[in-house]
Predict the structure.
Amino acid sequence: MPEQLHQGLTFTSWTGPVTIRHQVEVATPTCLRLLLSQGIDGFHEWYWGEGWVQSRLEGISMLPLNLGQTLNLLRLRQFLAAQPRGVS
């Protein structure tokens, strides 16, 4: 995943053997919206503020989206836990 996200950026990730293409539709200081294609056709939105985060995933896929959503939230938790105090 790229270090910085900006509107119009496209990148690819993999969940096991499944390729998921992400296109950044919105990237603001409090919101990220990704359009998804290939392995999932839909979108993934993130909103955050002081001490909270909200994530919404909608799409059509042969993958179990609930499991994918849980894995994304666990990855976010691991990322934030690895940040030096005061940075997250």
Observations:
- Residues 10-82 form one domain.
